[in-house]
Amino acid sequence: MVLYTESLSAPASTSTCFDKGSYTVEKKNIPKSSSSTTPNPPLFLVYPKEKGTYPVILFLHGFSIPNTSYSDLFEFIASHGYIIVAPGQSLVGLLRGLCVFSAVGDVENAAETANWISENLQNAIPDDVSPDLENVALAGHSKGGKAAFALALGDVNTSLKFKALIGLDPVAGRDTSNRLEPKILNYIPQNFKIPMPIALIGTGLGDDGCCGCFPPAAPWGCNHPFFFNECKPPTCYFVAKDFGHMDMVDDWLVWLSGMFVCKTGKGSYVDMRRACGGIFVAFLKAYMFNDDEDLTAIVESPNSVAPIKLDPVLWLQS
């Protein structure tokens, strides 16, 4: 096993994954309809306009967060040549999430969307834009990050096989004694039986409360270091030290959540989204296409390459 940490020397090469990609991007909403081919949660698609075949990312939103509020992040990632499918929330799902402290429904909806991707995604996008179903990543933020881990652990079976998993500040529950069902954290090192590479992006302020009135959005004991502790290699781990749990969503929601929900950072939210998006791109290039140049540059000297401070940065390889 190899452990990489930040190097004080300059990287051998610079990374362009933090710059906007070369593809123009299209966005599309797919509402729930009476058609049996449409999954229950409404879908938000972001994809390149140019003709080609592109890897796919199934992205699961956080608790009561609109799937479209990740639009800026999705557009950045899609500009590098990725198709993003983000299931939303029905009113019934929203009410169930508020009343029932569980992520079981989120995992089931994610599996339904995964099956839709394998059977119907091509019908929802232009004919000359094709999904590469051999290269599909599973990702999620907050509660959606926890749901993504649960789906990767096989809590619900899907017809789609995932090649990589990315947790964006995942949250397992309110505290260690009130973890969301299905409970996946067991506080045992390298306990996750997940047969794919994993990347974790945490926030340094996620476990801070808001204005002394609200509990942390990503409480200690249920947040990113505890997910990382249970991951087996190969795993990458990045912490946006000066940013909060919602600082990667669109600006209007960062502002709103900072007023009422959770602590936000004082840096550029555009840079935070660039950092998260760039890590997505670098990690997926490494593990989908055997091109680890960008990922190596980030790991060897993150604060010479990334637009924000990343500390710690770890890369465990078997």
UniProtKB/TrEMBL annotation:
It comes from the Eukaryota. It holds the Pfam family Chlorophyllase. GO terms for biological process: chlorophyll catabolic process. Gene3D superfamilies: alpha/beta hydrolase. Transmembrane segments: none annotated. GO terms for molecular function: chlorophyllase activity. This is Chlorophyllase. It comes from Tagetes erecta (African marigold).
